[in-house]
Amino acid sequence: MNEWLKMLAGSLCVITILLHLVPDGKFEKYVKFYAGLLFFLIAAGPVLEFFAGEGKLERLLELEFLREEQYDLKTAVEGMADLKNDQIRSYYQQELLRQVEGILAAYGLTASGVSLDFDEKEGYTVTGVSIVLDLPEDENITEEAKKEISGLFLIENNRVRINERGPR
């Protein structure tokens, strides 16, 4: 609670200084809007954590950012139809691997191996995911991560295969 009050007071000071530094004009309303939004998020932090649970809010935001990245990446690839070559496909596939690892990290899981199966015709659509996890502590978290990954790539839940190494 003490940390929250310090952060609230500090952000109020920074926002006030920022508002005094911005000259009057067309940018003032944008600075006020975003500063107010930021202040609201800081002020409402304890309430959001109460309803979302400790750490879940950060996880949800991180997962939403990963979804947005995946959508942006897919849109960019579709726009480059003339430039589809092996190198672009390789970078695209590496980025999708990074996103899967990001989802696993958001759930606190460590993977010793991740591989993606792609459509043979185009090489851009994920048809399956294989993951080898190191000692997962909670099977429910593993299932949640599996659902998140299948939702990200719009594939059936059984197309995401998770193997676990080590005892529970």
Describe the structure.
With 168 residues, this protein is α+β, with helices and mostly antiparallel strands. Helix content is 62%, strand content 14%. It has six helices and three strands, in the order H-H-H-H-H-E-E-H-E. The chain has helices spanning 2-21, 28-43, 45-52, 56-79, 86-106, 139-153; strands at residues 111-118, 126-134, 160-165. The chain has a three-stranded mixed sheet, with helices on one face. Strand 2, helix 6 (139-153) and strand 3 form a beta-alpha-beta unit. Helix 1 runs antiparallel to helix 2 (28-43) and helix 4 runs antiparallel to helix 5. It starts with a helix and ends with a strand. The model has no long low-confidence stretch (mean pLDDT 80).
Instruction: Name the helix and strand elements from N-terminus to C-terminus, one letter apiece.
Output: HHHHHEEHE
Rg, rounded, reads 21 Å
Number of helices: 6
Instruction: Estimate the helix proportion, in percent.
Output: 55-70%
How much is the average pLDDT?
80
| Low-confidence blocks of residues | none
The strand line-up of the biggest sheet is: 1-2-3
Q: Based on CA inertia axes, which overall geometry fits?
A: flat
Gap from first CA to last CA: 36 Å
Beta strand %: 5-15%
Largest sheet: 3 strands, mixed
Tally of DSSP β-strands: 3
**Category from helices, strands and their pairing:** alpha+beta
